[in-house]
Amino acid sequence: MTARAITCFKAYDIRGRLGEDLDEDVAWRVGRAFAARPGTVQVVVGRDGRESSPRLAAALMRGLTEGGAEVLDLGVAGTEEMYFATAHAGADGGITVTASHNPIDYNGMKLVGRGAAPLDPATELADLAALARSGDFPAASAPGRVLDAAHLRAHYAARVCDFVEAEAVGPLKLLVNAGNGVAGPAFDAIAAELSRRGARLEIVRINHVPDASFPNRIPNPLLPENQPLTADAVRAHGADMGVAWDGDFDRCFLFDADGRFIPGEYVVGLLAAAFLERHPGERIVHDPRVVLNTRDVIARAGGRAVQSRTGHAFVKQVMRESGAIYGGEMSAHHYFRDFAFADSGMIPWLLVAELMSRRHASLSDLIGARMAAFPSSGEINFRLTDPDAAIARVLAALEGEAIVRDDTDGISLEYPDWRFNLRRSNTEPVVRLNVESRGDAGLVAAQVARISELLTA
Question: What mean pLDDT do residues 109-136 have?
Answer without folding.
Answer: 97
